[in-house]
Design a protein that fits this description.
The structure is a homodimer of 219-residue chains. Chain A contains eight helices and eight strands; from the N terminus they run αααββαααββαβββαβ. With 219 residues, chain A is an alpha+beta fold. Among the domains of chain A are: 60 residues, Winged helix-like DNA-binding domain superfamily/Winged helix DNA-binding domain (Arc Repressor Mutant, subunit A, Orthogonal Bundle), CATH 1.10.10; 74 residues, Ferrous iron transport protein A (FeoA) (SH3 type barrels, Roll). In chain A, a hairpin with a 5-residue loop joins strand 1 and strand 2. In chain A, helix 1 packs across helix 4, helix 2 packs across helix 3 and helix 4 packs across helix 5. The structure holds a DNA duplex (30 and 30 nucleotides).
DNA sequence: TTCTATTTTTAGATTAGACTAAAAATTATA
DNA sequence: TATAATTTTTAGTCTAATCTAAAAATAGAA
């Protein structure tokens, strides 16, 4: 149906549209895909011809309904496979991204229907990211970055913004995973660093950590 | 490590070496891959440079130890995924080949180690074909084609030579699957057709069917 | 053994996707 | 508003993998 390269572009644009609302620039796509802007121009012209996105020269792109559907489906597959790898094959959450990058391109509707059922139709992947449903609809969740919550508030970790092995391994070392309760004991306004409580431990985290952890605050 | 095209060539050559002992001709490869002989020549020259096979112009090719290892590993992955699809996702044995053709190219040693363990280290795929071990060694089995066995002998179906959906669906209709006991009641020398007994049913099968079914005869 | 048929290889073209370098358009600044 | 800086596009090149058409080598038949 679509080539590997096309699917990867659509996926990247989909993510960028969510991160920054509105049109997505050529440069932003190039950066997120670690490729050159000229290559991006080539590809978005091809995707525009296929009506997967709208494109006006120098004005960036926007996915069409069809483009969004294709992208969401790739993301659905990626996240379902991540659940499979963690739940069934006992991979650790920092090991699954690269493998899922490959598995997300396997073409078979039936496979995904059955995989989803086999996994019990999960709603979130191992990093806490929501899995689009079969129509490409993403469930909205009201999560905040840990960096946005105030002193003395507490929240439950529900996901990570970045999911590099390095970051995930840091979280493991600190015994933070999805479901972990975190209380903010102190917050430094100068650099955004925090003292937090996790279980019985209290420790310092930098702003960089706090702005990559999603929490849900509880009333 | 290797491209999709390279892996597919190695796999095809590996199968051809087993089917007909000795060197494999350019034409044979082209036919089995549904491509042109000139394309095959290009690719085998590249594979020869990478020392995956030995090649002398006009003389056909032979896989090196390294080439065999790579090919067997692709086949191992294909067959393990087929077991997964049938055993875990309840696919039918005639639906899994095409999907496994894609899954066999997923690159991750760890994935295959874990998948194998998850499946209980199976020795055969759903069509009765042996799964190469992690070193690329194929277990030898003494199976015969049904067409080779004599009147009044009986055997257990242990595999199929061809595994097209059409053939597998024919077998289903006749209630033949792996493990089914078959007795040859009659054999026509003119066209190789047979009357066989399967369970309480007796029926006619053509030579074409008989030469695509593997059985193990029992003493 | 010589000629013919077949098989295999070479040469040259094509396509997808990427790249570099340079041109064009847009945005920011003085 | 003119100029500088930045972003984006175009033009042309490259590689992997394929193809067609033609040439070369091998095998088979008289």
């Amino acid at each position: 149906m679509f080539t590997l390269a096309e699917e990867n572009y659509l996926k990247a644009i989909f993510h960028l549209e969510h991160e920054f609302q509105g049109e997505v620039s050529t440069n932003a796509i190039a950066e997120s895909m670690e490729t050159k802007p000229s290559s991006v121009t080539d590809m978005i012209q091809k995707l525009a011809e296929k009506k997967l996105l709208t494109y006006k020269r120098y004005k960036g792109v926007q996915l069409t309904a069809e483009g969004k559907k294709v992208a969401a489906n790739v993301i659905r597959k990626h996240r379902l496979w991540e659940v499979f790898l963690v739940e069934k094959l006992s991979f650790h959450w920092d090991q699954v991204h690269e493998i899922a990058e490959q598995l997300e391109h396997i073409q078979s509707e039936e496979l995904i229907i059955r995989l989803d059922k086999f996994l019990g139709s999960p709603e979130f992947d191992p990093h806490g990211d929501p899995i689009p449903d079969k129509h490409g609809v993403l469930k909205r969740t009201e999560k905040k970055l840990l960096s946005e919550i105030d002193k003395n508030q507490k929240g439950v970790c529900v996901g990570v913004k970045e999911s590099s092995p390095e970051f995930l391994q840091y979280l493991d070392k600190k015994k933070i995973s999805i479901g972990t309760k975190i209380r903010v004991l102190g917050k430094e306004f100068f650099d955004g660093s925090m003292i937090i409580q996790v279980g019985s431990e209290q420790f310092f985290i930098s702003h960089k950590i706090a702005e990559n952890l999603y929490v849900q605050t509880q009333e």
